Fold this protein.
Amino acid sequence: MATYSKIGFDNPFITKAIASKLKKLPHPLSKSDAVNIGKEMVAEMKALIAVGSSPIRGYGKFPKYKNPKTGYPSTVAKQYPNKKASPVNLYLSGDFLKDLKAEVVKIRQSFAIAIGYSKEKEILKEKGHREGANTQPNRPTLPLARANEQFALRVQEKLLRRINEILGKIIKG
């Protein structure tokens, strides 16, 4: 994968208290736990996008199309009959969202989750959504740590719920 939004225990949206507890654990996050968490987070991201909401905190609903009856998406209606003007769900052929995946990467003695796109064509689409290419409004799907962006609360809750479950298993021994 070339474009990532990395989720490790050092990222800003996980509180310092939780990160501190996790670093002290005798058992780091297992690879299978990381895989499952990544799948759940991507599924939640796609669920938000499907209803026209950004998976990035603070972005809310995606901006509407400028001229849906005369411009896009009506201009692609013959080729993509399922493309509707509302919700703005970034789904045209399905290739873009199909390429949104989580990958587990090893960091020190534990694992982190990298969420992103791997195909160059889809990476360029994300860049276009982030920068507003072709006069479209900004509709990014991956939070950027360098911009202090965070996942939407629903996505963060998935992560924290799973971490809580993992902590519970570790405590029980």
Observations:
- The longest helix spans residues 31-50.
- The chain has a mean pLDDT of 85.
- The first strand starts at residue 3 and ends at 7.
- The chain has five helices and three strands.
